[in-house]
Amino acid sequence: MLQLYIGNKNYSSWSMRAWVLLRQAGIPFDEQYVRFDSFDSQSEFKRTMATVSPTGTVPLLRDGDVTVWDSLAIAEYVAEQFPDKALWPKDKAARAAARSICAEMHGGFTALRGACPMNIEADLAEVGKIVWRDNAGVRKNVERLCSMWSHLLAQHGGPLLFDQFSVADAYFAPVCMRLKTYQLPVPGEIAAYVERVHQLPGVKAWIDGALAEKDFVPMDEPYRAER
């Protein structure tokens, strides 16, 4: 059976992508949880991950003697191994678009990711107001998200970015968490998409796990001293 190494569900956006993809697609896997403490080379997290990963990061997928690290590589590997799940759109042009927006997310949106780290448990609306007021990069990132999602929802008819669930929805699920946690302003159609993503069974299962952790990792919460 596949083994998926992940960090804290409350904080680990990279882990969420791979976990939600597998869970929502109904692909069995064993979850290997490695708690965040710090990313120092001598931390428990880094020492644990160093035994299985060449990069010492999560997520990491093991399939027998095959090891796949990086969330986008995991998505490609899983889609290749389970073609019946149609994790990428079947249409060539749609598939190219889906891969492009996932790559864009993978290497971009740095202002949003930096100013609004994922924290599913928290209500950070007040932090979000300050970020929205003062951070032009975040506003630009959200504008791009809204433009992208609006176009795809209109083109493919919804309810998800490419009609049916795909890698793209799993890939943007952590962004949906951020938009909700920080209450960043988005148009109604975008808020509705965010809510539909929240209601996906695989996403709900991840959220339930995040809320059950009851963990506080100070390095992931620079805006407060305790939960």
TrEMBL record:
The enzyme's main class, written as a single word, is transferase
Documented EC number(s): 2.5.1.18
GO MF annotation list: glutathione transferase activity
Keywords recorded for this protein, A-Z: Transferase
Q: Which Gene3D superfamilies does this one have?
A: 1.20.1050.10, Glutaredoxin
The record ties this protein, via SUPFAM superfamilies, to: GST C-terminal domain-like (SSF47616), Thioredoxin-like (SSF52833)
GST N-terminal domain residues: 2-86
The record's annotation in CDD domains points to:
GST_C_3 (cd03194), GST_N_1 (cd03043)
Q: What InterPro entries is this protein classified in?
A: Glutathione-S-Trfase_C_sf, Glutathione_S-Trfase, Glutathione_S-Trfase_N, Thioredoxin-like_sf
Q: Which PROSITE patterns match?
A: GST_NTER (PS50404)
Q: What is this protein called?
A: Glutathione S-transferase
* Organism, scientific name: Comamonas odontotermitis
